[in-house]
Amino acid sequence: MKDLSSTIRLNNGVEMPWLGLGVFRSQESGDIKDIITTALEAGYRSIDTASFYQNEAGIGEGIKASPIPREDLFLTSKVWNDSQGYDQTIRSFHDSLNKLQTDYLDLYLIHWPVPGKFKETWRALEDLYDEGKVRAIGVSNFTIGNLKDLMADARITPAVNQVECHPWLQQKELHTYCLEHGIQLEAWSPLTQGKKLDDPVLLDIARKHDKSPAQILIRWDLDQGIVTIPKSADKARMIENADVFDFHLDPVDLGQLAELEEGLHFGPDPDEFMEKLA
């Protein structure tokens, strides 16, 4: 890993940037087109959105206005829960393409494993992949049980599982399972939604490396072999978040961070969330 252009090879050979930009609710912090323009100017090449975020159209405008060729970008979106099932997923996918002003996605994910529907949703993703409409397909917020259930009938193994992951929710068993099956783990909410940036252990490690707490959390993901997508609408913070390729956390740092595990969710707990969907 050298910079924002550094990539990891997924299980189908597609190269995915290690570090991208998350944009959940980013439009609340400013014009999403301007945010995307700023991110691309700062060197970001991976943008992660979803139909649920309701900002795909603005992202499409930002990409269209950029001089950066589409093939140099890695664009991810997700199908939302009320659009799951085979036919609805196909429609939702093409709606996302239209809003993003592109004729393909680099990665398309099932946002949540909706009971009774996610297998048909996955079949739709497999067909979109076969048609060349998406370069890689994957899932989000899937537990080990969900993955086992999906792969019992799947033709294609997911390339990515995107979940909440940080030192207070380290997902070690899930990560091990994904590694064993060639599934790349990707972290959403790596900065704990700002809730733990003042943790004393984190602050000590940040001072030791002359880095910010956010940079330590991003580097923690990277040092675990986890792709990550921190969110920011501010140019200075975008640049700061990307300035993590000139250091590594040492064994002492990693040991201290490992002790922070609490099973603490700052976003929805998948088990609780799925109970509501069932």
Quick overview:
Keywords: NADP, Oxidoreductase. The chain has helices at about 30-40, 55-65, 85-100, 120-130, 145-150, 170-180, 200-210, 215-225, 235-240, 250-260, 270-275; strands at about 5-10, 15, 20, 45-50, 75-80, 105-110, 135-140, 160-165, 185-190, 225-230. The chain is of the alpha/beta class and about 280 residues long.
Question: Can you walk me through this structure?
Answer:
It comes from Salisediminibacterium beveridgei. One of its GO terms (molecular function) is oxidoreductase activity, acting on the CH-OH group of donors, NAD or NADP as acceptor. Keywords: NADP, Oxidoreductase. This protein is an alpha/beta fold and 278 residues long. The protein has a single domain, classed as TIM Barrel (Alpha-Beta Barrel). Helices cover 40% and strands 13% of the residues. Helix 3 packs across helix 4. The longest helix has 15 residues. The protein is globular. The protein starts with 6 loop residues before the first strand and ends with a helix.
Overview features:
single chain, 278 residues, alpha/beta, TIM Barrel, eight-stranded parallel sheet, globular
Compile the SSE list and pairings.
Elements: E1 7-9, E2 15-17, E3 21-22, H1 32-41, E4 46-48, H2 56-65, E5 74-79, H3 86-100, E6 107-110, H4 118-130, E7 137-140, H5 144-151, E8 160-164, H6 172-180, E9 184-188, H7 200-209, H8 213-223, E10 227-228, H9 235-242, H10 251-258, H11 270-277
Parallel strand pairs: 3-4, 4-5, 5-6, 6-7, 7-8, 8-9, 9-10
Antiparallel strand pairs: 1-2
GO molecular function: oxidoreductase activity, acting on the CH-OH group of donors, NAD or NADP as acceptor
Binding site for substrate: 111
Keywords: NADP, Oxidoreductase
